[in-house]
## 1
Amino acid sequence: MSVRHGVVAGGGIGGLAAAVALSRRGWRVTVCERAPVLTGIGAGIVLAPNALRALDSIGLGPERWAGHALPGPVGLRTPDGAWLSRTGTGAASARYGPPARAVHRGFLIDTLAAALPPGVVRLGVSVTGVDDAGGSAVVRTSAGDLRADVVVAADGMRSVLRGQLFPRHPGLRHAGEAGWRAVLSGAGLPVRSAAETWGRGERFGIVPLVDGRIYLYATAVTGPGTKPADHHAELTRRFGAWHDPIPALLDRLGQHDPDPVGILHHDFHELASPLPRFHSGRVALLGDAAHAMTPNMGQGGCQAIEDAVVMAHVLAGDADVPAALAAYTRARLRRTTRISRRSRRVGEVARLAHPLAVAGRNLAVRATPWGVTSRALDTVLGWQPPSGPVPTPPSPVDIQEQP
């Protein structure tokens, strides 16, 4: 039997994870990335226990993520520095297994790319469409057509392939907030823990990365397209009087110390409604292309990695591709929809602005024991990658009845 070929549209976290996972299952893979270089632009990512287990299942175990777990305590604060909720990372590790790792997105991208055979990634090549008929699919790219046994649409929240497969879907909607992100040197700064601070319609997050740098993010309630003339001045206006070490971090940010890309600013978007399914014939959607969600639970990248592992699992061996992708939809659609909705609800609570609503929220958070909070996260962080035999593909009738 000839080696089957998978084409991945998009060289981000999800696309590269899918390429690694498929390669480990014996597939020949081509990744088409429209950018001229692979990059995890200017931001950090927390690899939660569920994502670490997924990476471990494709040969990228914890030893790859050098350094220590997030330093404790980890939790929520108010602008004056009082803790609303906190716990040491040891408690989370005891409950969920591998402790979370905070790394630069560029490091994660480089690690995934290095796990691929030479020549897999084609830079500067965009995917413009797919023709899926007969025994294989034809992928239309800016460098010519590619024939594939499976096509992975990992082309982001504004996915071209999602638009082609689901032309009547409403697409993205603005989530009511915008955010800033930056990474800067942590040398000499008194940052000993990861925390998020909730104000009135505003948030500020601090995450020490394993390489000694610090990942900062901030959010504010804004309308779509609102863009300050000076991002540093806007951050200082909003957060400069908040608790230490936020003023010192903002001062350093103003000294042109962040990554070369500087301060990133973006509106938050999510899919206006869940897709009816994550597959169509030989095409599978993955990551933001399948379930773009708000960043409030830090699960966007983690869910993309889960997607990649599950998809490669059902495609192992000589599995019938359309039937296997129907199994992928069944395994992933409900879970990602629930996490997306939970992330939206967290955002709604976190961005409350009326003083009485904020006071009630803070009281409720303080009164909730860690055990209750952790149990609520069990279904998210306790996820286990698939193992054992590949599931039996459904019958053709089952496939046709997929929503």
## 2
Amino acid sequence: MSASVSARPKPAYRLAALATRPFLRLLFRVRVRGVESVPDGGLVLAANHLSGWDVVALAYPLPSRWLRHMAKPQLFRRRLLGPLVRFLGAFPSRGGAGSSVDIAAGLARAGHAVVIMPEGARRRSGRVHQPHTGAARTALAAGVPLVPAALRGTDQVRHLGRWEIAFGEPIPLDDLDAGDADAAGIATERLWDAIRELEAGLGQPAAAAFASRSKAT
């Protein structure tokens, strides 16, 4: 059995993902762009971080993939919430030996799609956090694609704001050596530039967003 097959979600997860898609589409009028840019097999998916609904939004266009994401350790100790977050693909964050990056890289090498938000924390009052290098370090350590994404509207769930999800082409990493101390920083700069460019195109008609990206390049 190949890694990509073993990393597929359990039937119950896939059934739940497919069953909730019509409700999400109806409630949030979901608009998706660039999903064809997401390759098969192991990868790191990195996006801006607006709310706790971000992982749900990223999973919406990828119902056949089991997105694995980091969560606070205390969530796993809760009687009802723990099994749920595990079912949804979360793994506990850790420091030191067996760190979160090591765990995430292991999952990515095994064929999983690992979600890491470079901002680390949700934005508050429009504040944008400086990106961390965890997503880049994971992709470099695992030797898998680093895929940028951007989200809009997931922080407006109470108002049923439209969800927009955009995926970009994998970030070039072939010229970087995972053992180089500067590699993660360079990769993070490239990643963050791509995320901000995708984010700038959200809220625009598809033609306008394409023109904006073309002008930027």
## 3
Amino acid sequence: MIVSAQPRPIGHPGYSETFPALEESADAARKLVRTALAAWRLDDLTDSGVLLVTELVANAIKHTNTRHIRVVVSRPSERFVRIGVVDRARVMPEMVKPGDDLLTNGRGLLLIDALADRWGTDVYPWGKQVWAQLHCQPAA
């Protein structure tokens, strides 16, 4: 696995990698999140971060026809970790509505909404990034 680590103004590198849009890529995405959180000594966020990236990857693969996704793990500030999945589709994520069949579909964004302190979508001319932020306590 080749991990791209870019220096950021806050002193923490960002981690990103491009994967094929296949279910198997979720394993590599989880490893990337674990690597970033361990480097930042934020092991307490590992379970939530791994679950978030799993759902973000699954949504990008299931709801778009993109061939590749890019997973980005960054520290936009000392207080937050941001986990995002970039794809080339313009299809926006939608929360399920009351009455939707949650037994087979639609739980991903509900789970992301429950786990993340914030989540959203950044739209680009060529696609989008769906991201989720976790609050962290800076290492002493």
## 4
Amino acid sequence: MTAIDKSRTVAVVGTGTMGQGIAQVALVAGHPVCLYDAVPGRAAEAAEAIGARLDRMVDKGRLDAAGRDAARGRLLAAAELAELADAALVVEAILEELPVKQELFGALEKIVADDCLLATNTSSLSVTAIAGALRLPGRFVGLHFFNPAPLLPLVEVVSGFATEETAATRAYETAKGWGKTPVRCTDTPGFIVNRIARPFYAEAFAVHEERGADPATVDAVLRECGGFRMGPFELTDLIGQDVNEAVTRSVWDSFFRSTKFTPSLAQRRLVESGRHGRKSGHGWFSYADGAERPRARTEPPAPAPRSVTVHGELGPAEPLVELMRRAGITVLRKPGNGFITLAGGAQLRLVDGAASFGYEDGAISFDLALDYGKATRIALSTSEDTRRSMPGAVQDAIGLFQALGKDVSLIGDVPGMIVARTVAMLADFAVDALERGVASAEDIDTAMRLGVNYPAGPLEWGERLGFSWVCGLLDTLHDHYPTGRYAPSLGSKRRAFSEGEGDN
């Protein structure tokens, strides 16, 4: 079935930020749009607000005056739910409360025609459960837009247990016709983005809770080394700590409180204290007038080494060899199992998931980077014994990366460090979702790039690193934290096994 014809009415129920955004998208795409809100007068206010945004689009050259005037003529505010009777699509964007949504759609089903597509914009509730009591649940889908809906391209098209293929396809093609990038997925807790993204927040919070690094440093390492657009602390302050924590708890509860999705106690305390982020003036960081943002821990300058010895291949960190040569550092190569020896005796290793106290003194780990050439910061970690007994070794390591043009953050002895444990978990979560039929590989990577601005899709990233590396790091983390949280998924293990078979 093709997209809903532009001559047909799209109704939006709920006129908050998301409802207005969705209505604007459908309106600009050419549909007549009818707004409804249970609170008297809200729909009319929303129509005025949308009209003002259309004016701003004209001012910015994104819409001409004729288009604006035509769009305004197609926008209506309904006083009664019955006025939505001729809609071809109704999108709900009301409170995230299951009984309220079920009651609404039960009422709508008595009003609209049987061929009207019914959709929910829920981000955390089960599409299947919302549609459970409907007479025709096959025409019910999830259309999950991302905020702000007019600007962000991603739409998750969610099929509930009873959703018919024709309904899902019609919703997909309609969203595509609106200029969006739709992805299809099954009705799993969190859908694609909110399911797979949980480790991005959880691993950062865990590092903070273990006193491995402060929030500003974790954010800086993930941005400047991992390539993420925002760090998880600043991002959750933007989203709202209450909102982010509620999604985490919802996904955790929906997965029967699996340790894979365990919420953060530190974030819970933040929410309980009323520090909800930018909107409350304080979250992980203060947003009061004149408040100075904490700076990432950055080590002072240290002498650069003249030469290093590279033992074996460095795996994902192999590009460092050419960077060192370009920096004028003599690089000697010897057989070995993948580490760098500095003149002072320090052994630098790409993080492997183990804590540094498991190595001999002088062992220093460095974090994974998305691109070592483009990275502007690197994190180093070592044991307390090495810091005390071999301070010169630590300075040698700092000086090496500074010579490569990197800021250096020395963090605590945290297994898996920051970027590595985050990326490994994201890749594993993505594989698990793929193996369970949540979405296709292409749609998973597209959703994570467009929905949360990841620098690479987690499946693509995992393939690039190799799942042998991913599983090795997660297995080691599992040894340190034997709760099941870091145990690699069966899908990741299969991929790691296949990589090993390919080497034979």
